[in-house]
Amino acid sequence: MSAERLSTAEPDLAARLAAVTGRLDLACTRAGVPPRDVRFVAVSKFHGPPAIAAALEAGHRHFGESRVQEVQGKWPPLRERFPGTRLHLIGPLQTNKAGAAVRAFDVLHSVDRPRLAAALAAAMDRAGRRPDCFLQVNTGDEPHKSGVPAAGTDAFVKECVDTYGLPVVGLMCIPPYGSDPRPHFRTLRALAAASGLRQLSMGMSADFETAVAEGATTVRVGEAVFGPRPRR
Which of 118, 150, 207, 213 would staple 181 via disulfide (CB 3.0–4.6 Å)? Predict the structure, then answer.
């Protein structure tokens, strides 16, 4: 992203952040949920430090990233300037990056297979850190998407908790592109309830209000805050 594009985008970022917060608060009110009970993760992946700093200066503290290397490159100075910032891993994770992810992130939203669960458990033991974990469910049974099949969710939850001792707090899903997200959000809510989990990471820029109506406790909103993803 060019310096010129950043300079024109940053003044608008605080306004977009406030607009999303207002929409989220309204969605919570309609759902009968206190706004403080729904965490708003601003997805900052691929956006540079100036744009992120504008959001931090506006008071936001939860951010989503998808790559360990990107976090390592841009976040240390920002976290030093803005204590209390929490980083959420929202993208797929390779097992060989488990240790780095445990050190870099506070919440992991995409635990999706036993091998990764085992690697994360070992990394947590080594690092002495235990980021909260969401297990990703492939609610649409899409062959090329990450996530445990819906039918295998309960068994995977038990494996992650009982075998690997992971701090599993809830489930995450990404509905199929172009589909009605509501049935997928309802499926995730039912699966979480059946497994005794209370947190649901679901809903993005296009559907976070629907997600809140269906019980989301975390929404992941990127484009509505930061604008279109920069060209890589």
Answer: 207
